[in-house]
DNA sequence: GCAAGTTTTGCTCACGGGAGCAATAGGCAT
DNA sequence: ATGCCTATTGCTCCCGTGAGCAAAACTTGC
């Protein structure tokens, strides 16, 4: 067998090579690969064929450099413990790629690292930065906006009060009212709200909404506890210190969790350490509708965010150059299963 | 409040601007940002200060274009249902960034899409492509190697027989022997092996190893069934058709699963649909040691891959320009919990 | 067949930085 | 001060493409 089975390392084939071979100019070759370029069908086909044969593909680095548009967005994530992130990444990568956007994935380790992460994005001259994480508080956002040049800073699946960012999220108030209403109507009367970290002002809204609802309808403050991170194991620990040594009458009848990650940790603890049944002894609700929530084990009553819709809107925001983009809230829907 | 709170959209500040301000040449400015450049400490500091003030950061597109090294690697993933992917991504993004590599995340929808995904990577002129998925069979790899120009094609966490790729994986044979041996020694005698899709020859090794072990020690073929994808729900379905209508004596005493995703689906089904206990009625083992495997709910006996070590080796492979890189197998370790 | 209008094509001039070499400055012994 | 060696600095020439305009080619109506 001859050598041609070896990988073609193709010492950079450039538009010039294709042009020479196809008998046209370099610019015609490039036009053959640009969406909105004016080129005759004849030369288009001629160029495409030669390019295919030679294995030519345009160099997006150069294109980006010359056109000042990279078609690249940075995706900053800092919370890999939450399975919902995997769902969001799947949706984002799939839809963005379909629309011609490439994704630079940046792991933002912690709050102090946000600056470095943004620097990374900045050096690649991304067209936008998408944040899907929890540590991005207002202070971080401010430094980001001041220090680096980003055309767009998009907070995905989280609300932000910062006027210079674009936030695409579910309507937490509406959602949590729906949950609270469901809890109320189903007859639960001793709820315990399991909240996430208190550092970020972002998700506070869910807790506040629930507390408000309860106060309004019963005149009393529901019990709330808070976990230092959206981590099932930490949630279990917090639930433990809150529930241990209580007797049946003082035990909550439902755990309203800020998201599924917490709900899952709480479920595991209640079942396997306390030996209680769900929902008979304690009911549970979550938020996000992660894949496991549907599984036979959890059957979690939760709230589904319309991720596809949200991502489609994100795409619009990305392509929209002229007008100012606006924050937008989406309506999800309550998914009722057996856990509550 | 004055206007200076508005984000600095910084009409491209370039090395020339910094040079003028700092009283040096453009090249000296660039040298201040290159690791191995020769520059006096005095001008380095001068440039750094001015750059900081002006908000200048070098443009990696231009640098990449001129130097023919992008410091960018593409990460192709096609299986977002498996939580292990999230762990792998966390490890890869963290360590690669620390070593100066940026990551282009590409969602490879299915086998037919692999070509397009690779094209994407090719257009950004990545220095390497890392595959962490299951659909990348030998045929796909071959076309990838022939059609596009990739310096390195790395198969991560999966073995590959293709001589033109670099595979970094755990030693499946060693690992599965260890599992089989454990199953054997704990006295299980009616194992059922739950395998993944049969299309890819890659993970076949685990099943073959287990079957060989059993044949060798008992002279009989263990029962095996196969799931069309590494998806907990599908696993539940397959287990259902395999176990339904069996009585206690013909039921397997242990389910040996090709990975944790399958094990989790099987566990849920066995517990909640069959109403059996784990491990008393049926024991279960997995592979990967995903975060949930440790939780109170599953307590899954499984096999942990040394992901950090593997990623460190990956980094070495990436930086190694000269010599030919070699495939490498790593030893993980059996993690024994209560599920078997 | 010809003028006017419409495509299509080629060209100049960037985009922002790296390689590699030539020029300059600084350090040291004599 | 001189000569020699070395650490810095500046410069030329790319890297591979896009924007926008001018030249060329093709249409159309008469």
From TrEMBL, chains A, B:
> Gene3D superfamilies, alphabetically?
3.40.50.2300, lambda repressor-like DNA-binding domains
Domain HTH lacI-type intervals: 13-67
The family database entries (CDD domains) matched by this protein are listed as: HTH_LacI, PBP1_LacI-like
Q: Which SMART domains match?
A: HTH_LACI
Q: Which PROSITE patterns match?
A: HTH_LACI_2
A GO term, aspect molecular function: transcription cis-regulatory region binding
Q: Which Pfam families match?
A: LacI, Peripla_BP_1
| Highest taxon of the lineage | Bacteria
Instruction: Name the InterPro entries for this protein.
Output: HTH_LacI, Lambda_DNA-bd_dom_sf, Peripla_BP/Lac1_sug-bd_dom, Peripla_BP_I
Q: Which UniProt keywords apply?
A: DNA-binding, Transcription, Transcription regulation
Q: What is this protein called?
A: LacI family transcriptional regulator
Q: What is the lineage of its organism?
A: Bacteria, Pseudomonadati, Pseudomonadota, Alphaproteobacteria, Hyphomicrobiales
């Amino acid at each position: 067998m001859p050598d041609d089975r070896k990988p073609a390392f193709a010492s950079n084939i450039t538009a010039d090579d294709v042009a020479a071979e196809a008998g046209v100019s370099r610019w015609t070759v490039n036009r053959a690969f640009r969406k909105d370029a004016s080129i005759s069908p004849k030369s288009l086909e001629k160029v495409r064929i030669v390019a295919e044969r030679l294995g030519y593909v345009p160099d997006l680095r150069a294109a980006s450099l010359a056109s000042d548009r990279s078609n690249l967005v940075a995706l900053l994530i800092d919370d890999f413990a939450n399975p919902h992130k995997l769902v969001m990444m799947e949706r984002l990568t799939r839809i963005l790629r379909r629309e011609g956007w490439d994704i630079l994935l940046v792991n933002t380790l912690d709050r102090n690292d946000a600056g470095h992460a943004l620097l990374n994005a900045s050096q690649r001259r991304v067209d936008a930065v998408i944040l899907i994480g929890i540590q991005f508080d207002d202070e971080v956002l401010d430094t980001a906006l001041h220090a680096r040049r980003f055309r767009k800073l998009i907070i995905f699946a989280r609300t932000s009060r910062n006027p210079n960012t674009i936030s695409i999220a579910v309507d937490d108030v509406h959602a949590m009212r729906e949950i609270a209403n469901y809890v109320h109507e189903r007859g639960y009367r001793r709820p315990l709200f399991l909240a996430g970290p208190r550092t970020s002002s972002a998700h506070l809204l869910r807790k506040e909404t629930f507390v408000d609802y309860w106060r309004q309808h019963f005149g009393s403050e529901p019990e709330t506890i808070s976990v230092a991170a959206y981590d099932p194991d930490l949630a279990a620990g917090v639930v433990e210190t809150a529930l241990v040594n209580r007797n049946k009458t003082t035990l909550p009848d439902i755990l309203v969790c800020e998201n599924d990650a917490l709900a899952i940790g709480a479920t595991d603890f209640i079942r396997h350490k306390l030996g209680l049944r769900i929902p008979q002894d304690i009911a549970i609700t979550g938020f996000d509708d992660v894949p496991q929530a549907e599984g036979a084990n959890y059957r979690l009553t939760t709230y589904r965010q319309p991720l596809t819709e949200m991502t489609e809107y994100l795409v619009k925001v990305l392509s929209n150059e002229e007008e100012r983009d606006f924050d937008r809230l989406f309506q999800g829907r309550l998914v009722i299963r057996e856990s509550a």
